Amino acid sequence: MNPSEEFVEHGISQQNLRRVSSTTVLTLAYQSLGVVYGDLCISPLYVYKTTFSGKLSLHDNDEEIYGVLSFIFWTITLIALFKYVFIVMLADDNGEGGTFALYSLLCRYAGLSILPNQQAADEKLSEYVTDGSADTWQSSALKSFFEKHPRFRKGLLIFVLLGTCMAIADGVLTPAISVLSAVSGVKLKITELHENHIVIISCVILVGLFSLQHYGTHKVAFMFAPIVTAWLLCLTGIGVYNIFRWNSHIFHALSPIYMLKFLKNTGVEGWVSLGGVVLAITGVETMFANLGHFSPLSIRIAFTFLVYPSLLLTYMGEAAFLSKHHEDIERSFYKAIPETVFWPVFIVATFAAVIGSQAVISATFSIISQCCALNCFPHVRIIHTSSKIYGQIYIPEVNWMLMCLSLAVTIGLRDTSMMGHAYGLAVTTVMFVTTCLMAMVMIIVWKQKTITAVAFLLVFGSMELLYISACIFKVPEGAWIALTVSSIFMAVMYIWNYGTMKKHQFDVENKVSMNRIVSLGPSLGMVRVPGIGLVYTNLVTGVPAVFGHFVTNLPAFHQVLVFVCIKFVQVPYVCEKERILISRVGPKECGMFRCILRYGYKDLQQENYNFENRLVSGLVQFVETEDETASKATDFCGEFGNSDIEAFDSSVHTISISYPEEDRVRCSCDIQVMTSDIGCVESFLLKDESLQILKAKESGVTYVLGHSYAKSKKPSSIFKKFAIDVVYAFLSKNSTEPNILMKVSPTSLLEVGMIYYV
């Protein structure tokens, strides 16, 4: 087992990866080559071709080539090396990176989250880390601004989703441009191949790539690092060869003076061509997003000592070749390969293109999963592909959707230059979103002065805006694809989030009054039948309307009633010991409880244990320890926020439960009650209520799920009616049902339908 797998399997937090031995760090650095840098390392296949695909012409003095190389060098150095490797990677969220990690930090430190059902108890999670340092006047002013203007909190989420949607567009474009660029090199040796043959071969490779996704990357992960390493060594060797053979003075282009000369001499055409230059840093966002799988130090070592110098030598060597072969600009990368090593390099390039595509596809799965946690994407079935490495997932619906879109782009465009224009717009937009979020993190989280954040924003934001402006100019020439794909996903995410929030608002406004429940007496005015009833609800307090609707039509329910709420909190992971919150609802005689399951935005709702047995174990432990903690529990009553509920939703504590053994419920050795621990209790005389719960478990467990159907109100606009009655209804109908996500047996399922108007 490799070190990274061992850490994940044994549940050691990612932060501890920073304190491991130097051997482990070097091992992780080597492994990161296959997972993190695949996308970045295949950029030389198409950078120069895309840059010179427009009206930009080459002159005998080679100033255009020198200027482009200068831009490539400083772009990689400033954005990839300084911004991402040395600055952005410091802003990890408990070891996790990416856009959602930055957004999560801001939500925790500034209260920017718009997720419903947030509780004070969530802030006591071990992953809910804040440094506790006092706010500066700058951070206080920024927090106050968002508190006074809720619309800006919504706007921040939309801004984050913009970057997310562009990242999904990246997941569509990367496989298409990478595979087509790699395969097109064979045309140099087999000249009779028609363009249609190249497209067909590329499509076959793409279909094979997406068809193998359900096996998971861990099946072939051991091959990734050696192949990417071999690819980087090939690039380095070819680059050095071309420098010494064609133009040993090419290093003069590293001077920033050539950038100024380039823009001065080429004017608008030079500015527009920068949309191709930015492709040299595609994959840097993936580098940050994959931070959770490795340590920051290992990623820095791999990039600084191997990836960075290898890419620079590659681009310098190709520029040296172009300075003597202007006519080969369309095939400059493969033309620059020495004849004797062409086929080995071609084979390695094809494998490297597949690996780069694999990394982006896996990242897209992770992004969609996180969007589901933010209520910004319909529920989809998420499958673990590795029993050892947590976080490697596969989403069938998303996989086939990406495949269809990638095939459509490949067949429709057939031109890597047009794909590159769309690719560049997607990448630069994501980078600009990260820059803006980082500036806010500097003020709110790091408590830096405003001048520091502004300087960071001006230096890197201005560069990225320059590249974005060049890419936007290429909208008619292919960049429209990125806008179209991201706009479609943006509309889906916004409509789903809007409908979901309206549903939660309906549930809150139509809660059954606790006073009314208590006035019905211990039996709640119903026939109480043997068994346990689990009512799934979106609420962390009160009695949901679906329960009232159910008993109105069928005035009978189970002896033990548990309201189960599954919610997400603004942390990447919630450890198992802190996942469950149990409280009592109403007087003891009513036999009603509440169970809250908490997940982080990178957690998966797939439990590796029998949830029914674990829940019963938790209920028994709660009942047995309730009296001892009653006085402490009242301190938490304020988190429920409703006066008629505070008296009954109490005695909350977080528990850690051992796995059931031979159908016998035992208490765990670690019961965390509020802030203190109670010792291990192996066996004792159970209270009558505990015995009733165990007896009810033997009678069976029934799941009650509410199906809410949204309808627009009659006076609504045509746009709103279309969004709710057509789009949201379609998404709801085709999203994965909750009972499938929770693996509920059909024989134990009861579904209650309700209609709500928005």
Automatic annotation (TrEMBL):
<feature type="transmembrane region" description="Helical">
    <location>
        <begin position="423"/>
        <end position="446"/>
    </location>
</feature>
<feature type="transmembrane region" description="Helical">
    <location>
        <begin position="270"/>
        <end position="289"/>
    </location>
</feature>
<keyword id="KW-0472">Membrane</keyword>
<feature type="domain" description="K+ potassium transporter C-terminal">
    <location>
        <begin position="530"/>
        <end position="756"/>
    </location>
</feature>
<dbReference type="Pfam" id="PF02705">
    <property type="entry name" value="K_trans"/>
</dbReference>
<keyword id="KW-0812">Transmembrane</keyword>
<feature type="transmembrane region" description="Helical">
    <location>
        <begin position="222"/>
        <end position="244"/>
    </location>
</feature>
<feature type="transmembrane region" description="Helical">
    <location>
        <begin position="453"/>
        <end position="473"/>
    </location>
</feature>
<feature type="transmembrane region" description="Helical">
    <location>
        <begin position="389"/>
        <end position="411"/>
    </location>
</feature>
<keyword id="KW-0813">Transport</keyword>
<feature type="domain" description="K+ potassium transporter integral membrane">
    <location>
        <begin position="28"/>
        <end position="518"/>
    </location>
</feature>
<dbReference type="InterPro" id="IPR003855">
    <property type="entry name" value="K+_transporter"/>
</dbReference>
<dbReference type="GO" id="GO:0015079">
    <property type="term" value="F:potassium ion transmembrane transporter activity"/>
</dbReference>
<keyword id="KW-0630">Potassium</keyword>
<feature type="transmembrane region" description="Helical">
    <location>
        <begin position="68"/>
        <end position="91"/>
    </location>
</feature>
<protein>
    <recommendedName>
        <fullName>Potassium transporter</fullName>
    </recommendedName>
</protein>
<keyword id="KW-1133">Transmembrane helix</keyword>
<dbReference type="InterPro" id="IPR053951">
    <property type="entry name" value="K_trans_N"/>
</dbReference>
<feature type="transmembrane region" description="Helical">
    <location>
        <begin position="28"/>
        <end position="48"/>
    </location>
</feature>
<dbReference type="Pfam" id="PF22776">
    <property type="entry name" value="K_trans_C"/>
</dbReference>
<keyword id="KW-0406">Ion transport</keyword>
<feature type="transmembrane region" description="Helical">
    <location>
        <begin position="479"/>
        <end position="496"/>
    </location>
</feature>
<feature type="transmembrane region" description="Helical">
    <location>
        <begin position="156"/>
        <end position="177"/>
    </location>
</feature>
<comment type="function">
    <text>Potassium transporter.</text>
</comment>
<dbReference type="GO" id="GO:0005886">
    <property type="term" value="C:plasma membrane"/>
</dbReference>
<keyword id="KW-0633">Potassium transport</keyword>
<feature type="transmembrane region" description="Helical">
    <location>
        <begin position="341"/>
        <end position="368"/>
    </location>
</feature>
<feature type="transmembrane region" description="Helical">
    <location>
        <begin position="197"/>
        <end position="215"/>
    </location>
</feature>
<comment type="similarity">
    <text>Belongs to the HAK/KUP transporter (TC 2.A.72.3) family.</text>
</comment>
<dbReference type="InterPro" id="IPR053952">
    <property type="entry name" value="K_trans_C"/>
</dbReference>
<feature type="transmembrane region" description="Helical">
    <location>
        <begin position="301"/>
        <end position="321"/>
    </location>
</feature>
